[in-house]
Amino acid sequence: NTPLGRSYIQRALANILDTHDGRTALVSMANREANTPSGRSNIAGAIARISETDAGITALIAAGAIDSLVSMAKREANTPSGRSNIAGAIANISMTDVGITSLINAGAINYLVSMANREDNTPLGRSNITCAIARISMTFAGRTALITTEGIIAVLVSMANREDNTPDERTYIAGALARISMTDAGRTALITTEGIITVQLSIANREDNTPLGRSYIAHAISNISVNDAGRTALIDAGAINSLANKEDKGPNAQKVKVIL
Question: Mutual orientation of helices 20-30 and 54-63 as an angle, nearest 10°?
Fold first, then answer.
């Protein structure tokens, strides 16, 4: 089918599923082992559409759709578009605190890591994954879950290092890092992850960063600098030279002043 055709299929499914009976049928269908990769992609796309509103998120949680979504995320045979739809649904569901809690309880963060590590993700898929991580980091429980999930910070480093990432992706990544760096445990997790300081300094120098992205990068670096271990990590990564030579890029530029 064409991308437009798949979009119509997902819209039709979302319309049909805008009832309690429809959502119950969706959960049952999502749990079938015999679903094809295209079938899982369409189901995830329908869940993503329903989860665009708070009411939709609440209804999906009540129907048990979060566990079904995670079950689909586990499948190695998912297509790139399927992973994009799954990550998009997770990102939408993480717009609410109760959604974040439900995703944490279902183990969704582990599968964000495994999906992010696939080489054939689409640009939209990568954006959806980083968006989901950034949104989950907005609550204390979400940050704690991210910090304690093996590989999540390494995934952020890997995705930040991509030359083809977009300004929005970098904003999501920087936002997640800034929020993780708000606690001692988060700062320790960041400092002990290889390459994390270097990658933040690197993405800070990208010309097309969004104003919000630049603010998040400055916030994370400032937070990391509050203790001796953080200051040492910044010095070792060459932060003094990088920050001292940082040029003002316009009215929204962030002048980072870090006392080392």
Answer: 60
